[in-house]
Specification:
Layout: H1 21-34, H2 71-84, E1 87-88, H3 91-99, H4 126-139, H5 143-155, H6 173-185, H7 201-206, H8 233-242, E2 266-267, E3 270-271, H9 279-296, E4 301-303, E5 311-313, H10 314-326, H11 330-343, H12 345-351, H13 353-365, H14 378-383, E6 391-392, H15 402-406, H16 412-421, H17 425-430
Helix pairs in contact: 2-4, 2-13, 4-5, 4-6, 6-8, 8-9, 8-10, 9-10, 10-11, 10-13, 12-13
């Protein structure tokens, strides 16, 4: 899951599946290109200067690192994951998220001064907005904020039914999927939300389906964007969930639920079946592609940076677990979940609240216990990255202060790439999308 990038051609994805990379790359790259003036004044950190993490962070915010690029994203995932497992978040945490909304209903990645109106040129982001909608709709009591945000999302839908992370840009599979999840969470029927050309979000999402195109190992995959289309595991995980009308939270189907994965029936590079492909068929094809990649790589997905060896992408692997569970593929979902249980603790500790939230939601989708996740109590660890919850169901062990110390936002590689490429908008905006797996 996650902030997406959709302004330019994409390069191979960054390593290690950092949670915010998938939905915050747009804000990061744009801030780098536009310069420090585009960043909130209180948190803009020039190369070589102290990080905003060293300064006092807003009351109620999750994570200890600079929220400039992913504040709303990580806060939304943290609150949503807590709510999903019976934790009532702190009032200050919810208040912070609500206060980030602009008057037009949109959310940016971070507003240092919520009391001031959003500037007309502030970088409004469909991913941050859709994530906030999913969190606030789940928590309840924020109907006005949710309605305004949904109204803004509808107003920036592309003619083909899709969304981009930054309005006015070509759509992408990830942004379209996270908005579908927001619409569903807000009680809307995504199929009834149509563009000016009468295209639904599902119409838009299915344009990114490669289906039977390309090599057999890529059959069923989705691409991130149409330009330079290539099979993309991250986009496929997002789309296989979104095309079913589901968001970040997928209800567990039960330990015995198992629908066989069905690859698309192909002939001469096209679907054998005449007529449009159904949502269920598209989701099954995406699931088949994900399973093939997971089996190939030892039950995790890979991410690649130019000049670097492929590395496990834990965030995308967690998303694949959710996607497989959404399609009812319980057995296939539990295999990569077991890999995450053995390998994800250090990644989550270093990456912070959004990473813990991803793992909590992956465990929830498979009916697993997030409080006993390969020896880690994910719920307690997530709680420790922010203000003390108002209420916690059950008894949990103390995860220790290290979760708070390490939690936060931007892994080292995002900052490194940003400083190294500065004005290389196309590269950074594509960061994690074009993992040609």
């Amino acid at each position: 899951m996650a902030p997406t990038a959709s302004l330019a051609q994409q390069a191979p994805a960054p390593p290690s599946g950092a949670p915010l990379a998938r939905r915050a790359a747009t804000a990061l790259a744009a801030a780098l290109v536009l310069g420090a003036a585009a960043a909130p004044a209180a948190y803009a950190a020039a190369p070589g200067s102290p990080s905003a993490a060293a300064k006092k962070l807003p009351d109620g915010l999750y994570g200890t690192k600079d929220p400039q690029y992913d504040g709303v994203w990580r806060q939304s995932l943290a609150l949503l994951a807590q709510h999903t497992v019976g934790v009532r978040p702190a009032t200050s945490a919810v208040r912070w998220l609500v206060g980030q909304q602009c008057a037009d209903g949109a959310f940016t990645a971070f507003r240092a001064e919520p009391g001031k109106p959003c500037a007309p040129k502030a970088m409004r982001d469909t991913n941050q907005t859709a994530a906030a909608v999913q969190a606030l709709a789940a928590l309840g009591g924020h109907g006005d904020a949710v309605d305004k945000a949904v109204g803004w999302l509808k107003s920036v839908q592309n003619d083909d039914g899709s969304w981009s992370s930054m309005p006015g840009s070509p759509g992408d599979a990830n942004s379209t999927s996270v908005v579908i999840g927001a619409l569903a969470a807000a009680g809307q029927k995504p199929a009834s939300v149509t563009s000016k050309k009468h295209k639904t979000p599902y119409d838009g999402l299915l344009t990114f389906r490669l289906g039977c195109a390309g090599k057999e190992e890529a059959h069923g995959a989705f691409t991130f964007q149409l330009k330079g289309a290539a099979p993309n595991a991250d986009a496929t995980a997002a789309a296989a969930t979104g095309v079913l009308g589901k968001g970040f939270v997928v209800a567990p189907a039960g330990p015995r639920a198992h629908i066989p994965v069905t690859p698309p029936a192909c002939k001469d590079g096209k679907d054998k079946k005449a007529g449009p492909v159904s949502a269920a068929q598209a989701a099954d094809g995406g699931a088949a592609y994900l399973v093939a990649q997971l089996d190939k790589n030892g039950q995790h997905l890979l991410s690649v940076m130019p000049g670097a060896k492929p590395q496990p992408d834990l965030g995308n692997t967690a998303d694949a677990v959710v996607a497989l569970a959404a399609g009812g593929h319980g057995a296939e979902a539990r295999r990569p979940l077991a890999w995450l249980q053995k390998n994800a603790a250090n990644w989550a500790r270093q990456s912070g609240p959004a990473a813990y939230a991803q793992l909590v939601l992956a465990a929830h989708a498979t009916g697993s216990d997030p409080r006993s996740f390969g020896g880690t109590d994910l719920v307690t660890a997530l709680n420790a990255t922010g203000p003390e919850p108002a209420a916690v169901s059950g008894n949990h062990k103390d995860a220790g202060a290290s979760a708070k110390d390490d939690g936060g936002g931007i892994p080292w590689w995002i900052i490194g790439v940003g400083l190294a490429f500065g004005a290389g908008l196309g590269f950074l905006l594509s960061g994690r999308k074009r993992d040609r797996l």
